[in-house]
Amino acid sequence: MNKSLSSALALACLATFAAVVAAPARASAEDCPVPPPATDPVIKVPPLNEAALAKSIEKLPAPDATAAVVRVGGTKGTWKGVTGVGDLRAKRPARDDVRFRAGSVTKMFTAAVVLQLVAEGKVSLDGTVQEYLPGLLPADYPPITVGQLLNHTSGLPSPEIDGGFEEVYRTRFKTWTPKEYVALAVENPVEFTPGTKQHYVNINTFVAGLLIEKLTGRSYEHEVTARILRSLGMRDSYLPGRSTHIRGKHNHGYQVVPDGFPGSTAYGDASVVDMTTTSVTSTWASGDLISTARDLETFVNALFSGEVVPYAQLEPMFTVPRVTAFGSCDPAVYTSGMSRMVLPGGQVAYGKTGARYGFSAGVGATRDLSRTVVYSINSTDAKASGRNQRGLGVALAALVP
Questions:
Q1: What does the pLDDT look like over 102-123, one tens digit per residue?
Q2: CB hemisphere CA count around 383 (13 angstroms)
Q3: What pTM value is reported for the model?
Q4: From the centroid of its chain, how far is CA 401?
């Protein structure tokens, strides 16, 4: 990576599509000034730099990733790339038409369905969870609005679950129910007064998924499938529910583990386990989507064009609340369902990343759709700090001169 791209990467890490930055000391809302409203300057996207894009996914498999699929589009040109191996045992070359676990990219779909319901007059962003889902939250919780769920300013806590990989691997086939997950979370008090801070946590989208089910009388999976996947012709995308497998063609995902870890195989100087087959019920409406690069490109184009959510209700997906991040005085970066990324040079993009063990995915675009980018990287440490380095390299190669 050249020096300018390396510097750009360091700057962009401050506001990645889905980075969660935790400060060592907690700052109250009163301690922090109100951030100014975010404005998006009009900056033309650069010509496609095919050499930089190819370099961003070169020399795979490598210690950090086994395969990568990239699809760049928009009104200013297109590019596709695939590198690496799809299966370490068979040494099968990676393919660009494969399904992958999209992780938290799922949140874009959940937010979009809620905003569709707003457009249909079935719910208000100013209405409260307590109003629409009585009894779900403890009686001593303050009112939490639907809008606060979507932009992560609700203050809802996360459940206390052992997130260490050994426990994740041991329970990788465990099935969670959404209400079980929420009930465990709300054993804890709210983290802050709703609407005063932003904390990106999965519980918000779990509750949004339950809201979708309550308002429609049908499952979350049915509503996302009927309203978005089938409507847009995203034939290779689906929500797996309790299934632990990826249907059809897919590149395998691996996680690096200590030597001697049960079920591991050698990978260069390290050891890995195959995490392709696993339950995703622990992330449900926050992270269980299985998709393809082509399908996600279709989705982002339709979403930004007002074909998924009417323009009158779409603005929350491009609006960052004027609060600071929980635990710091840094301005919020998340919108309703996405995040806002300010790139070196001032270009602004919106989108979402996602990570499941073995899989890192991202989708983003300039608001005028002059440039879109979708990637799937089979990262060997997808949940680690700095996991977005190669993904950021792809985004920067697509968007930065």
A1: 999 999 999 999 999 999 999 9
A2: 15
A3: 0.93
A4: 25
